[in-house]
Structures are given as C-alpha cells and as structure tokens.
Design goal:
The protein has helices at residues 3-33, 39-70, 76-79, 81-106. The protein has 115 residues and is mainly alpha-helical.
C-alpha cells in the first residue's frame, strides 16, 4: 500500500464517523456553555463526548495503519488477530463513553424526599 491508498482508506472509514464528530462537537459546545448550571455533570459529559470525539479520529487512523501492516509481506493469516484486538479495544472505549455519560446524568444531584 502506498500513502494514497492509506489516505483513501482513512477517508472512507472517517466518513462513517462524521455524524459522530458533528454531534460530539455540538455537545461539547453546549456543555461548555451550560457549565455553570451543573459543573459536576458537565465535567463527566465533557469527558464522554470528548472521548467520543477523539475516537472518531483515532479509530479510522488505527484501522488504516492496521490494514497496511496486516496486509504487507504476505503474513495476512498471522496478523489477523490484530483486527480483533483493535475492535475489542474500540468496543471497551465506547463502553467507557457510556459510563461517563451515565455518571454525568447523576453527578451533583441532590436527594429529594419522597413526600
């Protein structure tokens, strides 16, 4: 693979993440604008959407690099494990995003009486 192929691979993969990039950027801006209303929750929400935004760039780059590495030198069969490992790491990081957002929902809330 040459650099042109890697760039094409990145762009085609990045296109899938583009809606997430837009939503994450908008969410980060809203969180920063509303920071004073709920700073504890805002911190966790910013961590969640910030990680989502970072992953939107890291995952396509990682996939392009991994594909280039796995398919070179004719060692495809011995390197296919890397795709599974990369996918698992990405899945775990996606779960961390959801944990951050869940904590953001409940962070800083006071308990209320049920009366």
């Amino acid at each position: 693979m040459n650099n042109t192929d890697e760039i094409k691979t990145f762009l085609s993969t990045f296109a899938v993440y583009l809606p997430r990039v837009i939503i994450s950027l908008v969410a980060c801006l809203v969180i920063l604008a509303k920071w004073r209303d709920a700073p504890k929750g805002a911190l966790w929400a910013l961590l969640g959407f910030g990680l989502a935004l970072v992953l939107c760039f890291v995952m396509p780059v990682g996939q392009a690099v991994l594909q280039n590495w796995a398919l070179q030198n004719g060692n495809r069969e011995t390197r296919m494990w890397a795709f599974s490992a990369f996918g698992m790491i990405g899945s775990v990081l996606q779960a961390v995003i959801y944990i951050f957002l869940l904590v953001a929902v409940f962070a800083g809330r006071s308990k209320t009486d049920a009366t």
